[in-house]
C-alpha cells in the first residue's frame, strides 16, 4: 500500500488498542491515560485531540508514534464491517493501492487482533 499521509484515517479515530499496543507505546514514555481511554463497552481506544488521533501531528501530517503505532493502524486500510467482515475502508484515498495478497494477509491479522481485543475487554468487564 502507498500512503498519501492525508490523515483521514487519523481523524475522529475509533481505533481499538490491545494491551500489547499500550505496552509498546508506554515504552516510548507516553502515559496510557494520555493517549487512550476505556470506552463504555470496556474496549481500550485511542484518544482524539482536536478531532484527530492523539499521535497525529496536524502540522507535519505525520504520526508521532509511527514506528510503534498500534497494530490496527499497521493493518489499515483493512477494517472490520459488521455486515461484510474484513474490508478495505472506503474513506482511504489510497485503498486501490492495496494488493490482493496484502488484503488477505491484513484481514487474517485483523481477525486475530479483534479476538485478542475482545478477550481483553471481557477480562476488563469481569474485573469491574
Looking at this protein, list some descriptive labels:
alpha+beta, 128 residues, two-stranded antiparallel ribbon, 4 helices
Could you explain the architecture of this structure?
The protein is α+β, with helices and mostly antiparallel strands and 128 residues long. It has one domain. 35% of the residues lie in helices and 17% in strands. It is built from four helices and eight strands, in the order ααββββββαββα. The strands form four sheets. It has a two-stranded antiparallel sheet with strand order 1-2. Strands 3-4 form a two-stranded antiparallel sheet. Strands 5-6 form a two-stranded antiparallel ribbon. The protein is globular and about 45 Å long. The N and C termini lie far apart (41 Å). The relative contact order is 0.19. The model has no long low-confidence stretch (mean pLDDT 95).
List the helices and strands and how they pair.
Blueprint: H1 19-27, H2 32-35, E1 36-38, E2 44-46, E3 48-49, E4 52-53, E5 56-57, E6 62-63, H3 71-75, E7 78-81, E8 85-88, H4 100-126
Estimate the global geometry from the Cα principal axes: globular
Number of helices: 4
Order of helices and strands: HHEEEEEEHEEH
Main beta-sheet annotation: 2 strands, antiparallel
Mean pLDDT: 95
User: How many separate domains?
Assistant: 1
Distance between the termini: 41 Å
| Percent of sequence in beta strands | 15-25%
- Please state the structural category: alpha+beta
**Uncertain spans:** none
Amino acid at each position: 500500500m502507498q500512503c498519501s499521509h492525508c490523515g483521514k484515517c487519523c481523524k475522529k479515530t475509533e481505533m481499538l488498542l490491545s494491551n500489547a499496543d499500550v505496552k509498546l507505546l508506554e515504552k516510548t514514555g507516553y502515559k496510557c491515560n494520555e493517549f487512550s481511554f476505556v470506552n463504555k463497552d470496556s474496549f481500550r481506544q485511542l484518544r482524539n485531540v482536536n478531532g484527530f488521533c492523539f499521535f497525529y501531528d496536524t502540522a507535519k501530517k505525520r504520526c508521532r508514534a509511527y514506528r510503534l503505532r498500534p497494530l490496527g493502524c499497521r493493518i489499515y486500510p483493512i477494517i472490520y464491517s459488521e455486515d461484510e467482515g474484513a474490508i478495505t475502508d472506503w474513506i482511504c484515498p489510497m485503498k486501490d493501492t492495496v494488493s490482493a495478497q496484502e488484503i488477505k494477509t491484513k484481514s487474517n491479522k485483523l481477525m486475530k487482533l479483534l479476538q485478542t481485543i475482545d478477550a481483553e475487554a471481557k477480562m476488563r468487564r469481569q474485573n469491574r
